[in-house]
Amino acid sequence: MENDQLLFDLGPPTTRRVADLVREGGVAALTEAERRADAATYQEVRCRSALNHVEGMRYFEWTLNPYRGCTHGCHYCYARRYHSQFALGAGDEFASVILVKTNFVEVLRRELARPAWTREVVGLGTATDIYQPIEGHYKLTRRTLEALVEARTPAGVITKGPMIVRDKDLLARLSRIEGSSVVVSVPCSDEAVTARLEPGTAPPRQRLRAVRELLDAGVNAGVLMSPIVPGISSKPSLIEKTIKDAAAAGAPIVGSNVMRYERPGSKGKRGVNVSARSVTA
């Protein structure tokens, strides 16, 4: 019966179907995709599950990613390699071909309502930035937060997007659920370094203003200074400047991590990965 329904379903394709199309004809085969003013191509897809079980994460075993791919285009992003699941490249296509899971929230609500769900902490925005610009159009992240708050499910939220302040009302409510946290990623507050490593992101000063606004709204927010990239953002003066700027924004906590280089083909589970080509580009 399910297969018969799919034959007549005129909705977005599944992610598996997208992968098949790309393998057959490249990105050009995504004839329903929309190219927007930011020069990225957006393909709406249907997902079969929202909650994703992961291993090797320090703080949670479940993740949520309403989008795949990210226009922030951070050169060091470990999530680039997962774009290959959709037959898309980890290079330019990671930042220019974005999959939008239009039924994500409906699927999530069903999963959260299952008796077997024990309200474990979920990581929100681990393989994409949930506040990249397209979120302003689809509002999947806001609706996801609504579902989590209603289900009393704690979440760890991470983003580089100042758009996060739009949802400070929901994030304040989420912060009252034990185990929840919100961090704004500012690996380095030097704008020249940021432009080199994170070409599609908002300037660090905008992100730090967002931290202040979140704190003022009662959100349990902090700053994540990660990754520290050896030879680029690892100078003591840059690290000191970033910590001071975070403190000036009122951040009560600053977390950090040093980027780890992985050889091509390695299967490490922790750390931040980057190719030598990305760093030197």
Model description:
The strands form two sheets. A seven-stranded mixed β-sheet has the order 3-4-7-8-9-10-11, covered by helices on one side. The chain is globular and about 55 Å long. Helix 7 links the parallel strand 8 and strand 9. With 281 residues, it is an alpha/beta fold. Helix content is 33%, strand content 16%.
Quick structural overview:
By secondary structure, the chain is of the alpha/beta class.
Largest sheet: 7 strands, mixed
Mean pLDDT: 88
- In DSSP terms (H or I, runs of 4 or more residues), the helix count works out at 11
> What proportion of the residues is helical, as a percent range?
25-40%
List keywords for this structure.
four-stranded mixed beta sheet; alpha/beta; 11 strands
In terms of topology, how is this protein built?
Blueprint: H1 2-7, H2 15-25, E1 34-35, E2 41-45, E3 52-53, E4 62-64, E5 67-68, H3 92-96, E6 97-101, H4 104-112, E7 122-124, H5 135-138, H6 140-150, E8 155-159, H7 168-175, E9 181-185, H8 191-197, H9 204-216, E10 221-228, H10 236-248, E11 254-258, H11 276-280
Parallel strand pairs: 2-6, 4-7, 7-8, 8-9, 9-10, 10-11
Antiparallel strand pairs: 1-2, 3-4, 5-6
